[in-house]
Amino acid sequence: MAPSLLHPPSQLSPADALQLSQKAPSVLQNSLSTASSSPLSALLSAPETADLWIKYENLLLSCLRTGDQRAAHQCLERLVARFGDDNERIMALKGLVKETDAQNTEDLEKILKEYDQILKDNNTNIVCCPAL
Q1: What does the domain layout of the chain look like in residue ranges?
Q2: Bigger pLDDT: 46 vs 99
């Protein structure tokens, strides 16, 4: 069965992930590039579906996995435009993109500090397992 952008790419083989990421140019070209909350815009544009945003997220993950940073950033931009910077899922995806953009250990440490700050700012309750 051919891989689908509607299914999470986490269990895909490297070849299937590459096959999906190679669809990025056509998916990005033929899909909604911006989201708007304007009623007039909603009437004049193609209908927005949940499948579209699932495709963008799964395409982003496949592109990150195969090293297509340009397409991954385009997917992320569209997701951010639709759901906003403060959406927790978007924040997680932004972190993944930053991690793959990191050039060295110092960059990764900076990202980890950003994660810590996000958790502090959001007063997130995290249930941790006690050390065994």
Answers
A1: 9-121
A2: 99
